[in-house]
Structures are given as C-alpha cells and as structure tokens.
Amino acid sequence: MFFSTSTGVLALAATQLFIGVSAQLKTCTNNSTLSCHSSSKAPTCCYNYPGGALLQTQFWDTNPSTGPSDSWTIHGLWPDNCDGTYQSSCDPSRAYTNITAILKEQGRNQLLSYMDQYWVNIDGDNESFWAHEWGKHGTCINTIDPSCYTNYTPQEEVGDFFQKVVNLFKSLDTYTALSNAGITPDSSKTYSLGDIEAALTKVHGGSQAYVGCEDGSLNQVWYFFNVRGNAINGQYQATAPLSKSTCPSSGIKYAPKSGN
C-alpha cells in the first residue's frame, strides 16, 4: 500500500486470494489518463467513465449505534459522473444478493470477518446492505466489468470490489483524524465545520472531504478520488468534493455511540 499525503495519490495493489486461479484485471500503464480528465469521454478498462470520481463513504451511526465506539463504519464506494450526478444499478444481471457465499467461495474469510465488524447495517442485516452497495454502485464501475479480466472467473469482480473498499477505508481513519484535532464524540460539546474539514484534509492527501450532518449532528464523511487506471489496482488521487456539506458552519454535534 502506498499513500502520499503530499500528492494525494493512493495506489493499492489488489490481492488475489484465489487458490489455483490466474485471472486478473488487464494491465494498465502508469501513464493512463486520470479519470475526470479526458475530453474523449470513452470508457476503457483503464479509464473510469462515466463514473470517474470514486467516493469512499463512511457512516457515524448512533441511533442505533453500529460498529466499534472508536471507529466510523463503511458505507461504500460510489462512482460519480465527475459533476455530482451518478448512475445506479447498471447491470441487474450481476446484482448478486449472496455476497457472503461469494466471498467464502473465493477464500476471502478474513475480509468477510472485517466487514461484519466495520461494514454494518443499522438494521442488523449486513448481507442486504452489502448486496445493495454492490448492485447499486459496484456494477457501475466500468473498469471492473467482467470483460476487463483475463481468464475471468464468475463473480471475481465482486470480491475485488469489497476488498478494495475495505483497503480504502483502512487508509482513511476518520475517527483518529478527528481525535488528533481534539474532535471527539461528546454529549455536550459542539464543533465547527471548518475545524472538522481541516482535520480530515490531513488524512485525505490535502484535499477537503465532504462532511454530512443530520439534524445538526455529524453522521457521514465522503472522500473523493480520481483514479489513474482501473478501480482495483490503479492510483487513487484525492480530489475536492463534488457535493456541498449539509452541516451548519458551527455548533455541530458529534454524539457518542451507545456505551462510549
């Protein structure tokens, strides 16, 4: 894993966990065009289009609480059309609902265990949540289309997608970034949007993140990237958010999770 806070470039090598399987994504060169930066607007296996901006999104759930009390949780990885609009549910034929079974079949048990702790549904139905995120957003990432693999194995892109989202999430520790700036969950304290954004900029390669609130309480963070190459082992470059914060400029609550 490589992450440079000076350039905002994140390059994560995809880990193939299959035994005896040689399938892999087609190779992209280092001079591949950065997504959202081409006038040709033609999708290839090395150019994310139309969803050229990829968002690693996170939750802070408190009512009810989900995940560890000292960590945010995963929402997903969303392709955005570089302008705040997006496609959804792009391939119903690959809208798989048996994500657990797919990951187990691929030998990704460690990944599955991590997801059960950090990629959790507020209603307790993790499987449906994962299926929703894959069907709505994952199937719209064109650079992980089955045609972009050599020796393709069915559902291989599903495992690659979930592993990539987890890798990105691990590199973007929102709780620690805020805590290092003195911004911690508290039942009475409030914080300013500027301070929150400044703290997250440090973990996001110098680029601002989107901060979301509900009823004045902090509840979501979205980290925007452009990608050079495919979405699995390409280089991720942090970029400014395409959406405006839903938080007030001051008086933002950061409620503790239950038991915190």
From TrEMBL:
It comes from the Eukaryota. GO terms for biological process: RNA catabolic process. CDD domains: RNase_T2_euk. GO terms for cellular component: extracellular region. Keywords: Disulfide bond, Endonuclease, Glycoprotein, Hydrolase, Lyase, Nuclease, Signal. It is an enzyme of class 4 (lyase). InterPro entries: Ribonuclease_T2_eukaryotic (IPR033697), RNase_T2-like (IPR001568), RNase_T2-like_sf (IPR036430), RNase_T2_His_AS_1 (IPR018188), RNase_T2_His_AS_2 (IPR033130). The active site is at 75, 133, 137. Its EC number is 4.6.1.19. Residues 1-23 form the signal peptide. GO terms for molecular function: hydrolase activity; ribonuclease T2 activity; RNA binding. Belongs to the RNase T2 family. This is ribonuclease T2. It comes from Penicillium cinerascens. The lineage of its organism: Eukaryota, Fungi, Dikarya, Ascomycota, Pezizomycotina.
